[in-house]
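Example 3.2
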Amino acid sequence: MSMKWIGKVTGGLLGGLLLGPIGAALGALLGHQVDESGAREEQPASGADLTAISARFFRASFQVMGYLAKADGRVSEREIAAARAVMQELRLGAAQVREAIACFTSGKQPDYDYGAELAELGEICRGRPELARAFLEIQMRAALQGNDLEQPVRSLLARLASALHVSALELVHIETVLRIQRGGGFRAAAAPGTAAARERELAEAYRVLESSAAASDAQVAKAYRRLLQRHHPDKLKANGLPESMLAHAQQRTQQIIEAWEIVRERRGIR
């Protein structure tokens, strides 16, 4: 599928936005679209190429995860638990878990070359922006659970995003949606059914859709369709996402659908 169709992202996040907890002001997302930075036409790949990409993606996912966990000099029990939680969330089989642990351990070693890894990942994900985002989301998921993105992990993730041609704005959005997931989805801290709970639920739904209350029904619907297409498991698999990691794509797709249902109901969209 041509990047001319999918190579647009909702832009205009309010200036001064900082990478931080979801409680930070995220600003309004304007309804207009801008060209996606660094977008290239997707490159078709043979079955053998996709198999190689999938295998490299899997190994790199857990090697980088191990490297980020060791970034402050030691790997805490919380970070180990976070890595295992990601393996469980991805529904890896026993053999895959053993391979993932071996890769995680490899990434912790002093001779692990993060720079070389980033260069190779950049080549693997060239022309496959959805695959690049999926890689970042998996790393962000582990980092949030492991140390809540404390330095130096946050800086290393920003470096990873740059190598994968993922903008700072997109990195903010990835953090936002994953924090919403960690917080129990669209459930607010306020008592269920209260006005405060409903307002927070709606605000989070707009954030997931990269839209805002100021957008028209047509603009919100377009944002929903774009995100759904971007994260569809079949599309990611066709770009090299390992079969074992499709659960991640399915979770993101479900989150997008739930966000759309909340917005659609509140707006009375048929």
